[in-house]
């Protein structure tokens, strides 16, 4: 078990290092230069010498490998460099903007899981075939909806038409309803789809018939036998869902004008503020890798077969 | 095998005029038609039939567990009197497990992989009212002991993947007998198991049955198993009952043609004329000191340990053994798919273990392999013509027309209709597919054919046809066969010589006549004793061969 | 997208009633895609209005008989803008899928058929690609490549390389393990011949179905980037951009945002349905 853990952590570290290297190469090999963009602006009236000095200050004149080493060392220490555009350390930028995004994302996740679970169970247990079919095809529809459009539609319907959610001076709770819904629905769709399919698949397994032959009712079998087996495939996409959640948050924040990581990302792209974007990319990669690590550790608790991968077939 | 039947009691199970159908794209398709039979108290009744005969569907309908797309169209199922086909699932839940229980087909997938053995056996007690967890555990441990599991306390906390196939089937039997039901449905309870394990499991079911006075509805494809274990036999074909009656009478005087054919085709221990080794011919295959190690989870595992044998040209040598005996590994070394850790394989004077690259490819012309599963060994995207013609494309760049001609010729040789040539393997039955696979192996006119469980996936009547075809081809073409199988009865029918494998070692080797009549090794004796079908009347078999030929 | 994970979980066989019903949806799906393609090829045939030039005094009209989807703030017909925008979104999606398909399948084919160290290296690279959320990855590429329709398409395509590579590799490995592939080697087939005759045809089917699915999500991704303002510049009638422009008139002109979104949804639904049918008939 320990050996497995160590090797998994090693693998995760390799992936992160590669991700860092790739993002560094990608974002430092830019045609545009954030420092030039900001300070070459004639309104600032800076001489080329002054700009060169600023470049030295930011370390932009050092050879690429030295920049790489420095940046990596700083990242490892938790320091993500300076935002050229905002003129503050990236850490400070993240510190103010990460919490609202995290709150939005975690609420979105909770609701997505709830919606997906309810939908999957309804689609599996609904009394009529046509109702089951209808419920089963709902996720396919939800998956085809652009997130930003969904947000706009929700505003239009609930704020403008029905006037249920005020947009002017909303309470903290009111301000969160629509963004959370916007984020949760598209995340719930793939989750529900996977859950429905894996429920379907597990239900055809012979051990389900055996359980029924013992005298167990359908709901009993679903709860005691099917669910735990069906959860594994859902767990394996947890990492991907995290990425989706983050991307969804970026779009949602833009639509609803919420300050957060999404706004920061959008501005970083617009102003070619590479340090900020790289920090966000690496943060996302760390989240993805960590979640997959946790999934790998949790999965054996659900399915004992995963404890020793080769298994004693005696 | 003697059973006391009480004629005055109502039968434990009475099936009357049962018809079942499945919903398919084209509408409802009948799979079972007007089936009637009874199972008396303490009786064992066997439902015998080949795949598609409706035997499993009948069993599922009896316990009320037809798949969602199936339905009972007509007829009744009475369980110790009351009719249960119209019952609500709640009412059925109350009797399932308690008055009627199931021993399923495939122990490998019939236990929930994420729950412990203890939880799964305990569940049936819990479902039927035992609320006290401590009592349940005591009861489960008792049951696990009763079904012959070693170290029940350990098994209680283990998961299914930590148990062997035979042990899992014991657990499933423990579940089935837990509440001493009146009727146990055993649906092919041993077809996924090795023959020696099969025997022990069937013995166990017998013992529990006589101890508890339970009746058994035994569903099987194997007439031998039915003959050995059942009081009465019901023969099904295409969803209809062909005939039924007390075992001895039915086997001695079968009234339907189909039963006669089944009896004729069932390979068994009946003293048929054995194939005798021809006058000493030259050795075609020589395997000497073959050893194969595999790396399993960082540890070396010896799959084959110093095995040697020789096969005379134009004869059939059988490699027989249970799963994990190393027989398939040897076959793969003989065709050059695997380089042995040590030892030599020589075919027609060429040492194949020394070959690689282009010389190995060229040598493949001489040795061809036929696989167990004809559904996976043919490319579903190719036509029969492309499949059989492919080896020619690899070795003899003849024109398309000539290739087509040669494929047509070989199709005739394996007794396939000429119009098969343009069809997709998907449109063919299992037996036909296996003939295509044999045709592909033969088109390069190899000297040696390695048959890896080549008839194991087929129904007995089809199996008998393929075996006959192989025999004919051997006589016409002078082929040498290496025949890998787990089925001793088939060995007896087709092989001249045999090597018995156990856990990677050859425990016995020699002429079939010798090994089968005077086995030297204990393991061989055990294997021979485990072959089902002792009760099949040999006199009937010999008579029926004439009947089958018509 | 978690497309690949959705894609690789097998769907159980469907019963009769479902089949009939789904055939209708399949025909409809092909019709939707055909219309969209026709819009892209010959937009002039489908609308008398201009996609870029507005008519003064015609601003912000609600849908009526002449302007089915209404008009925008400078009097342009919304339906015309959608029709003229088809070429942007569709060609973008085609470019994206081609980039992902060629890049991904070749990587996956090499990884799956050669194996060994090369396989490990390729799959590690794929792991890295997968570890960054699609949108962030696309934004990183757009920063370098610059804004614009083609760059957006390339960025979206590059994100799908990982999915194609993983699927192709697993398909190749699945097919390579099949008995018929070993049998082909056993009957004297050379590596290249077996790869060409058996491995490639049998593994490509699934990948092509996946490509259809990716086509739909590429349209979604491209419209998202267009909405954020990184795609085609403003007068161009790009679908995501149409929705972004309509945002300012939510209270007065609901049609400006609603209809482009509905069109996107229909096309994505249609391609997903087609992908599903491609998977079932190999």
Can you give a write-up of this model?
The complex is a heterotrimer of chains A (314), B (550) and C (282). By secondary structure, chain A is mainly alpha-helical. Helices cover 76% and strands 1% of the residues of chain A. Chain A is built from 13 helices and 2 strands; from the N terminus they run ααααββααααααααα. Chain A has a two-stranded antiparallel ribbon. In chain A, strand 1 and strand 2 (88-89) form a beta hairpin. In chain A, helix 7 (147-161) packs across helix 11, helix 9 (206-213) packs antiparallel against helix 10 and helix 12 packs across helix 13. The relative contact order of chain A is 0.13. With 550 residues, chain B is α/β, with parallel strands linked by helices. Chain B has 3 domains: 42-56 and 93-268, Rossmann fold (3-Layer(aba) Sandwich), CATH 3.40.50; 283-366 and 447-532, P-loop containing nucleotide triphosphate hydrolases (Rossmann fold, 3-Layer(aba) Sandwich), CATH 3.40.50.300; 379-445, no CATH class. Helices cover 37% and strands 25% of the residues of chain B. Chain B has 20 helices and 19 strands. Chain B has helices at 55-62, 89-95, 117-127, 133-146, 152-156, 165-177, 195-212, 223-229, 247-252, 257-265, 327-334, 357-363, 384-395, 400-413, 430-442, 460-477, 488-494, 512-517, 522-530, 538-549; strands spanning 13-24, 27-39, 44-48, 70-79, 100-103, 183-187, 215-220, 232-237, 240-246, 283-296, 299-312, 316-320, 342-347, 350-351, 367-370, 448-452, 480-485, 497-502, 505-511. The two termini of chain B are 35 Å apart. Chain C is mostly helical and 282 residues long. Chain C has a single domain, classed as MetI-like fold (Orthogonal Bundle). The model of chain C is unreliable at 9-20 (pLDDT under 50). The longest helix of chain C is centred in the last third of the chain and has 38 residues, at 191-228. In chain C, helix 2 packs across helix 3 (78-114), helix 5 (134-145) crosses helix 6 and helix 6 packs antiparallel against helix 8.
């Amino acid at each position: 078990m320990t050996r497995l853990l160590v090797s998994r952590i090693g693998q995760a570290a390799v992936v992160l290092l590669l991700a860092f290297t790739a993002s560094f190469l990608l974002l430092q090999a830019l045609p545009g230069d954030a420092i030039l963009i900001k300070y070459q602006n004639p309104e600032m009236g800076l001489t080329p010498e002054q700009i060169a000095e600023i470049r030295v200050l930011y370390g932009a004149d050092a050879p690429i490998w030295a920049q790489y080493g420095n940046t990596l060392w700083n990242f490892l220490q938790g320091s993500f460099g300076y935002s050229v555009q905002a003129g503050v350390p990236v850490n400070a930028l993240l510190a103010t903007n990460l919490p609202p995004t995290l709150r939005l994302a975690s609420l979105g996740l909770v609701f997505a899981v709830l919606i997906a679970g309810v939908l999957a169970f309804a689609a599996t247990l609904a009394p009529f075939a046509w109702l089951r079919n209808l419920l089963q095809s709902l996720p396919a529809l939800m998956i085809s909806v652009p997130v930003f459009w969904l947000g706009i539609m929700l505003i239009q319907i609930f704020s403008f038409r029905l006037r249920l959610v005020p947009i002017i001076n909303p309470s903290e709770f009111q301000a969160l309803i629509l963004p959370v819904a916007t984020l949760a629905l598209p995340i719930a769709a793939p989750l529900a789809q996977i859950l429905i399919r894996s429920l379907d698949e597990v239900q055809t397994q012979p051990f389900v018939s055996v359980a029924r032959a013992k005298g167990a009712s359908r709901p009993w079998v679903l709860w005691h036998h099917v669910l735990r087996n069906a959860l594994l495939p859902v767990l394996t996409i947890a990492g991907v869902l995290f990425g989706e959640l983050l991307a969804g948050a970026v779009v949602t924040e833009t639509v609803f004008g919420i300050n957060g990581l999404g706004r920061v990302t959008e501005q970083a792209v617009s102003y070619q503020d590479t340090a900020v974007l790289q920090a966000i990319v690496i943060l996302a990669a760390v989240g993805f890798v960590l979640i997959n690590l946790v999934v790998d550790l949790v999965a054996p608790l659900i399915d004992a077969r995963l404890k020793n991968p080769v298994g004693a077939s005696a | 095998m003697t059973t006391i039947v009480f004629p005055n009691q109502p039968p434990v199970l009475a099936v009357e005029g049962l018809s079942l159908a499945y919903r398919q794209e084209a509408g409802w398709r009948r799979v079972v038609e007007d089936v009637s039979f009874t199972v008396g108290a303490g009786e064992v009744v066997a439902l015998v039939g080949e795949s598609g005969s409706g035997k499993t569907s009948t069993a599922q309908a009896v316990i009320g567990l037809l798949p969602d797309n199936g339905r009972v169209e007509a007829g009744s199922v009475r369980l110790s009197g009351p009719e249960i086909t119209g019952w609500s699932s709640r009412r059925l839940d109350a009797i399932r497990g308690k008055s009627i229980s199931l021993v399923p087909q495939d122990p490998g997938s019939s236990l929930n992989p994420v729950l412990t053995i203890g939880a799964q056996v305990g569940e049936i007690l819990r479902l039927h009212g035992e609320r006290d967890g401590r009592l349940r555990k005591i009861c489960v441990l008792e049951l696990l002991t009763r079904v012959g599991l070693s170290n029940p306390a350990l098994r209680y906390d283990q998961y299914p993947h930590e148990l062997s196939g035979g042990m899992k089937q014991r657990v499933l039997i423990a579940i089935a007998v837990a509440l001493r039901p009146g009727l146990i449905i055993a649906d092919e309870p041993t077809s996924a198991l090795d023959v020696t394990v099969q025997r022990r499991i069937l013995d166990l079911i017998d013992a529990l049955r006589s101890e508890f006075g339970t009746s058994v509805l035994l569903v099987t494809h194997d007439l031998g198993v039915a003959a050995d274990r059942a009081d009465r036999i019901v023969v099904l074909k295409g969803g209809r009952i062909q005939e039924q009656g007390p075992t001895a009478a039915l086997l001695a005087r079968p009234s339907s043609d189909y039963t006669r054919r089944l009896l004729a085709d069932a390979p068994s221990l009946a003293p048929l004329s054995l194939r005798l080794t021809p006058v000493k011919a030259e050795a075609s295959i020589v395997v000497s000191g073959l050893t194969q190690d595999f790396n399993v989870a960082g540890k070396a595992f010896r799959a084959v340990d110093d095995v040697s044998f020789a096969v005379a040209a134009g004869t059939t040598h059988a490699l027989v053994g249970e799963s994990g005996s190393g027989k398939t590994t040897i076959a793969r070394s003989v065709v050059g798919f695997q380089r042995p850790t040590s030892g030599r394989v020589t075919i027609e004077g060429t040492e194949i273990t020394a070959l690689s690259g282009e010389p190995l490819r060229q040598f493949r012309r001489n040795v061809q392999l036929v696989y167990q599963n004809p559904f996976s060994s043919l490319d579903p995207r190719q036509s029969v013509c492309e499949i059989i013609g492919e080896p020619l494309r690899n070795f003899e760049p003849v024109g398309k027309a000539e290739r087509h001609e040669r494929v047509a010729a070989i199709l005739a040789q394996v007794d396939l209709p000429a119009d098969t040539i343009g069809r997709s393997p998907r449109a063919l039955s299992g037996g036909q597919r296996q003939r295509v696979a044999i045709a592909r192996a033969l088109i390069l006119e190899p000297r040696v054919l390695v048959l890896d469980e080549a008839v194991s996936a087929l129904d007995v009547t089809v199996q008998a046809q393929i075996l006959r075809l192989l025999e004919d081809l051997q006589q016409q073409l002078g082929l040498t066969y290496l025949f890998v199988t787990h089925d001793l009865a088939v060995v007896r029918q087709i092989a001249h010589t045999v090597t018995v494998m156990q856990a990677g070692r050859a425990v016995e080797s020699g002429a079939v006549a010798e090994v089968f009549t005077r086995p030297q090794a204990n393991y061989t004796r055990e294997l021979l004793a485990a072959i089902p079908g002792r009760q099949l009347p040999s006199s009937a078999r010999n008579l029926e061969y004439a009947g089958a030929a018509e | 997208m978690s497309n690949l994970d959705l894609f690789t979980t097998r769907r159980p066989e469907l019963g009769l009633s479902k089949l009939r019903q789904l055939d209708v949806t399949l025909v409809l799906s092909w019709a939707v895609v055909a219309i969209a393609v026709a819009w892209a090829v010959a937009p002039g045939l489908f609308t008398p209005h201009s996609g870029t030039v507005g008519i003064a005094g015609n601003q912000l009209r609600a849908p009526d008989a002449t302007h089915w989807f209404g008009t925008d703030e400078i009097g342009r017909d919304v339906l015309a803008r959608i029709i003229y925008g088809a070429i942007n979104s569709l060609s973008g999606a085609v470019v994206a899928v081609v980039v992902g398909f060629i890049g991904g399948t070749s990587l996956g084919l090499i990884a799956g058929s050669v194996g060994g160290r090369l396989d490990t290296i390729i799959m590690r690279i794929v792991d890295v690609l997968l570890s960054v959320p699609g949108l962030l990855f696309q934004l990183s590429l757009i920063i370098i490549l610059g804004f614009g329709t083609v760059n957006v398409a390339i960025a979206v395509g590059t994100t799908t390389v990982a999915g194609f590579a993983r699927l192709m590799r697993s398909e190749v490995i699945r097919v390579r393990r099949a008995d018929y592939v070993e049998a082909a080697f056993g009957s004297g087939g050379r590596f290249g011949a077996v790869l060409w005759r058996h491995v490639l045809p049998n593994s490509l089917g699934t990948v092509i179905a996946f490509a259809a699915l990716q086509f739909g999500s590429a349209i979604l991704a491209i419209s998202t980037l267009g909405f954020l303002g990184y795609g085609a510049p403003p007068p161009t009638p790009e679908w995501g951009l149409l929705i972004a422009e309509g945002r300012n008139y939510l209270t007065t002109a609901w049609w400006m945002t609603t209809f482009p979104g509905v069109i996107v949804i229909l096309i994505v639904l249609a391609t997903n349905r087609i992908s599903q049918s491609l998977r079932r008939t190999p």
